[in-house]
Amino acid sequence: MREVNYDERQHLVYARARALPPETMTEWLRAFARHAPAGRPLTVLDLGSGTGRFTPLLAEEFGGPVYGVEPSVRMREVAEAGAAHPAVTYLEGSATEIPLPDASCDLVLLFLVLHHVRDHQAAAAEIARVLRPGGRVLIRSSFPDRMPELLWYSYFPGARLVDEQVFPRMEPLVEDFAEAGLAYVTVDRVQERIADSLSDYADRLRLRGSSTFERLTEEEILDGFAALDAAVDTERVARPVDEESDLLVLERS
């Protein structure tokens, strides 16, 4: 499948399309704090930080410097304009080329990032390099061997097929990271509210902020929105959209 270029269109809509309700952001920060190393402050790497959805919040939560590393120039520009923080530095880089010194970080977050990384072994080695002993890696991802039943798959069945192909399977991913000295700790299943109503959910999906849309045909997209709009028309009382998501936790030996 072709690579998604976030400098073309995605940077224009990503922040709005992937925004989460405040209570969901709080729930994710609680999950990150549960699995972070003890002690504060912590130096945090937000790897694949995009438009800075979590980056300034990580600085508030962990009290130390946060580095948002992102390969897309346009996504970084959006982050610098809309998610600035005195403790945050946005840097050009990627999962396989992190512009930080050895053993400089206590915590690394990859939030919906690894499906864009081709060489997981190289990424694991690079992440291990910048982590201090006892440091933690938090990986929010979908895993085809644990694929959740997301609501939008009901309207865009091709999206599930795409995600099953592009997202990494958990077992080989854990093996790749273990070889780099990053040991499995646990998988946390996080309950998150995605939207407060089906109508709000549809409005966000129309922005096509998920990279999966880039891999669907226009016919699949139009058919999906037609079905979703029909469902929205029947919504008399707001129906919140909730999902379960996996957070894989690893530790540097």
Automatic annotation (TrEMBL):
Gene3D superfamilies: Vaccinia Virus protein VP39. One of its GO terms (biological process) is methylation. Keywords: Methyltransferase, Transferase, Ubiquinone. Residues 45-139 form the Methyltransferase type domain. One of its GO terms (molecular function) is S-adenosylmethionine-dependent methyltransferase activity. InterPro entries: Diverse_substrate_MTase (IPR051052), Methyltransf_11 (IPR013216), SAM-dependent_MTases_sf (IPR029063). The keyword Methyltransferase applies. Belongs to the methyltransferase superfamily. This is Ubiquinone/menaquinone biosynthesis C-methylase UbiE. It comes from Paractinoplanes atraurantiacus.
